[in-house]
């Protein structure tokens, strides 16, 4: 049970504890509630189902064979849910809901003594019913009969899923034991983490060079008090899974044969050190909810949680133990266990058998030391300048908080906000170019490859490996995104690394590099993702919805495997070199940084860029077409379970900064719509909590926004959804909602805005594009009023404006067998 109180007071805390204790100590478990809730849980089961659930169930059955976890999914089975009675649910409750099994965690801005008193008040007199039942054994992995001690391969299985990419996972499985969560124990965990990091670095290096596998990784996990497992996950490039498995096992065999170099160790130590140091610098920003969640996870495995300062202190005190000999010993321990089990997922029958998989795992692994080289260190001091440093031509406050606008001599515009409100955190975002507007109708493949290959293809003297090495021990990121009208680089860094972060971003625009291997690897990854998206309605929506909501604009079309196969590194360079070279640049730097140092770094980096070229003459307009309303829905198909479907009903709205205030009110209207739709669909179909309505409003375009209702459903209820959503939309136009209904939506929004406004990232997001569109500055000042100042009448007026009958675009995603079930039927 988890409750979040964004605006906690003495009164609301007491009321919250009252309700929370009621849920736990005195729930109503009657036939009426059961009749309402069982269909909801069954709907949740259906939504979770499909290929993803089949794979999870198979993974559990393979890796935890002979233990309760193997066949006990948390949600249960259809049979057990339908067989539930008030008596059986009450019996379950009385067996497990007991004071001895309860932990109350409260984290946040309140007096601990007062919180303790509330726990005592509301939970102190609770007593369980009947005899206490001891926690059952979760079992332990068993040694396979006759298995060799040094390679105890047990259960191996092959699962054929035609729409999934090949994936091979094997696990070295040991019994789970209760540990003493001491400093010494945590020092051992840190050596385990270091050993895994070194192997994963080598595996990534081998994958980058091209060959048998797209990716591979080692991860140790203590699972559900059932087992301690070292997983090895491999994504083969093609059908030759044997070579992929052999190559990965070769890298691991080498790690178990000879100790790593001290240079390799030092590199990973520097990476882990900064990962532990950043939470210390940002400890004042640690949300209470995160603390509570961490405690719950620790309790689940009977361990504890330490403060960021303690974790960093333990790590640094352990550094003398980070020797080649110790890392080698821990590496060997990670791959020793009671049993090794494996699952291969393949799209085609006949590619492998369990016996062949077992044989491949039993075969001796040939140690591969070809990816051991850590590489020479790379220093920013050794890199060439971006260009001739520029100068500041204008500098003035924008009139909001202490944010200022700085104009560089080459046309680059900057928003700066140095603030101590978020110690240790600096947010950087660079918006540039023309976004989807600069792509051609046949560029779908290169659009898809951009997020993966653009950063990996390097810049200047730095290839992908050099980018990794130069970032060692630093908090540097390189996130990339493409939007309707711009591209962006983004990172969270810190003051000490800000200048180098700006160099990386500016150098990518000044001297992009076009290595081929990242493009080829991205092609393989994108092809796998395309097929995987087809396995569920959610996947198809995520892949294709924007294309249809943009009236099939080819620039938004998902690249097919055939498109990707035809793409070349040369074509990638031609498309993206134009995208990087044209259009305006806006830089935002918000957070805990030194202003003067940031200004100096800006003049050396973005100020040193040559003046930008204008967008190409063939760049698309700042508008987007919405599809015409349709009486019958567009029907797309997925390859997952036949009982899964999704339905979407979407009404066009608008776009542009002049309508930001209205767009916020549309979010309120969408939430009102959500609540009514959820209630109606639960009443009519027993749907779960998935029905929702959301509003989009592209600020950089003058059109293209929409109010969109969406639900995951049984195919037979898709027509009911369309009828119900249309009825609610019509009702919202006919009469105002009640004041109470509006308050139940507005008050959480008020609390959410107040909470978000404590973050500089919130203002950064609100002010994107403000250097060229000052209206966005004024819009920040009205944000709370826009979200909370609407009346039932103003919301009705918006509904009349946008939700009138006959304007909606409808789309359904079903299996091919259910394609004839999505025609609308009159409400009963």
Number of helices: 28
Sheet of most strands: 7 strands, mixed
Uncertain stretches = none
Structural class by secondary-structure content:
alpha+beta
Q: Average pLDDT value?
A: 92
Overall morphology: globular
Q: What is the number of E strands?
A: 17
Task: Tell me the Rg in angstroms.
Answer: 29 Å
Spatially, the strands of the biggest sheet line up as: 6-7-8-12-9-11-10
Spatial separation of the terminal alpha carbons: 37 Å
Tell me the helix content: 40-55%
Give an overview in words:
With 828 residues, the protein is an alpha+beta fold. It is built from 28 helices and 17 strands. A seven-stranded mixed beta sheet has the order 6-7-8-12-9-11-10, sandwiched between helices. Strands 1-5-2-4-3 form a five-stranded mixed beta sheet, with helices on both faces. The chain starts with 9 loop residues before the first helix and ends in a 14-residue tail after the last strand. The mean pLDDT is 92.
Task: Sum up the structure in keywords.
5-stranded mixed sheet; 17 strands; 7-stranded mixed sheet; 14% strand
């Amino acid at each position: 049970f988890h409750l979040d109180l964004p605006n906690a007071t003495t009164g609301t805390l007491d009321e919250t504890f009252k309700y929370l204790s009621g849920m736990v100590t005195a729930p109503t478990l009657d036939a009426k509630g059961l009749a309402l809730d069982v269909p909801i849980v069954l709907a949740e089961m259906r939504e979770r189902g499909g290929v993803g659930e089949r794979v999870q169930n198979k993974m559990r059955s393979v890796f935890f064979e002979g233990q309760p976890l193997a066949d006990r999914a948390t949600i249960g089975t259809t049979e057990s849910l339908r067989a539930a009675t008030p008596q059986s649910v009450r019996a379950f409750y009385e067996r497990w809901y007991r004071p001895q099994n309860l932990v109350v965690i409260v984290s946040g801005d309140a007096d601990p003594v007062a919180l303790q008193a509330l726990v005592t008040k509301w939970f102190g007199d609770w007593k369980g019913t009947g005899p206490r039942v001891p926690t059952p054994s979760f079992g332990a992995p068993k040694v396979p009969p006759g298995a060799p001690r040094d390679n105890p391969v047990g259960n191996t299985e092959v699962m054929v899923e035609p729409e999934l990419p090949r994936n091979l996972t094997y696990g070295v499985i040991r019994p789970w034991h209760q540990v003493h969560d001491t400093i010494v124990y945590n020092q051992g965990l840190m050596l385990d983490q270091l050993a895994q990091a070194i192997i994963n670095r080598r595996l990534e290096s081998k994958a980058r060079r091209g060959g048998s596998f797209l990716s591979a990784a080692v991860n140790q996990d203590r699972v559900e008090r059932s087992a301690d497992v070292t997983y090895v996950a491999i994504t083969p490039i093609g059908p030759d899974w044997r070579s992929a498995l052999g190559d990965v096992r070769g890298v691991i065999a080498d790690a178990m044969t000879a100790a790593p170099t001290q240079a390799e160790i030092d590199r990973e130590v520097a990476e882990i050190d900064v990962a532990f140091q950043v939470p210390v610098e940002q400890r004042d920003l640690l949300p209470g909810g995160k603390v509570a969640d961490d405690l719950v996870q620790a309790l689940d495995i009977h361990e504890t949680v330490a403060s960021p300062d303690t974790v960093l202190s333990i790590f640094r005190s352990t550094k003398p133990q980070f020797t080649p000999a110790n890392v080698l010993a821990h590496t060997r321990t990670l791959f020793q266990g009671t049993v090794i089990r494996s699952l291969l997922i393949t799209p085609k029958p006949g590619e492998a058998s369990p016996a062949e998989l077992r044989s491949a795992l039993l075969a001796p692994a040939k140690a591969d030391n070809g990816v051991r080289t850590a590489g020479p260190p790379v220093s920013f001091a050794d890199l060439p300048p971006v260009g001739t440093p520029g100068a500041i031509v204008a500098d003035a406050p924008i009139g909001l908080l202490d944010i200022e606008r700085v104009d560089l001599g080459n046309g680059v515009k900057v928003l700066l906000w140095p603030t101590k409100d978020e110690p240790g955190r600096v947010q950087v975002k660079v918006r540039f170019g023309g976004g989807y507007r600069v792509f051609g109708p046949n560029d779908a493949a290169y659009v898809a490859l951009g997020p993966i290959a653009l950063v990996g293809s390097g810049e200047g003297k730095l290839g992908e490996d050099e980018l990794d090495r130069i970032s060692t021990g630093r908090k540097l990121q390189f996130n990339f995104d493409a939007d309707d009208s711009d591209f962006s680089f983004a990172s969270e860094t810190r003051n000490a690394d800000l200048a180098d972060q700006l160099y990386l971003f500016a150098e990518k625009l000044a001297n992009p590099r076009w290595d081929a291997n990242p493009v080829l690897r991205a092609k393989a990854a994108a092809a796998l993702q395309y097929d995987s998206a087809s396995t569920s309605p959610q996947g198809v929506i995520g892949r294709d919805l924007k294309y249809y909501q943009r009236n099939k604009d080819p620039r938004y079309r998902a690249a097919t495997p055939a498109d990707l196969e035809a793409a070349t590194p040369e074509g990638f360079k031609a498309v993206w070199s134009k995208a990087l070279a044209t259009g305006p640049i806006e830089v935002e730097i918000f957070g805990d940084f030194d202003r003067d140092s940031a200004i100096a770094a800006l003049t050396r980096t973005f100020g040193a860029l040559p003046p930008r070229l204008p967008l190409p003459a063939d760049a698309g307009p700042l508008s987007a077409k919405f599809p015409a309303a349709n009486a019958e829905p567009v029907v797309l198909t997925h390859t997952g379970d036949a009982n899964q479907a999704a339905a979407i009903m979407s009404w066009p709205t608008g776009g542009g900064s002049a309508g930001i205030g209205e767009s916020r009110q549309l979010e309120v209207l969408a939430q009102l719509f959500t609540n009514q739709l959820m209630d109606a669909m639960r009443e009519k179909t027993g749907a779960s909590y998935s029905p929702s309505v959301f509003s989009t409003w592209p600020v950089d375009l003058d059109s293209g926004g929409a109010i969109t209702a969406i639900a995951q459903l049984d195919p037979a209820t898709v027509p009911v959804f369309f009828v119900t959503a249309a009825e609610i939309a019509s009702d919202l136009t006919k009469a105002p909602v009640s004041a109470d209904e509006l308050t139940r939506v507005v008050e959480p929004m008020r609390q959410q805005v107040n909470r978000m406004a404590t973050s500089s990232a919130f203002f950064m997001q609100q002010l994107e594009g403000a250097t060229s569109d000052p209206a966005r500055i004024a819009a920040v000042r009205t944000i709370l009023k826009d979200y909370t100042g609407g009346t039932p009448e103003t919301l009705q007026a918006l509904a009349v404006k946008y939700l009138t009958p006959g304007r909606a675009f409808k789309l359904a995603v079903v299996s091919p067998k259910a394609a004839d079930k999505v025609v609308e039927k009159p409400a009963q």
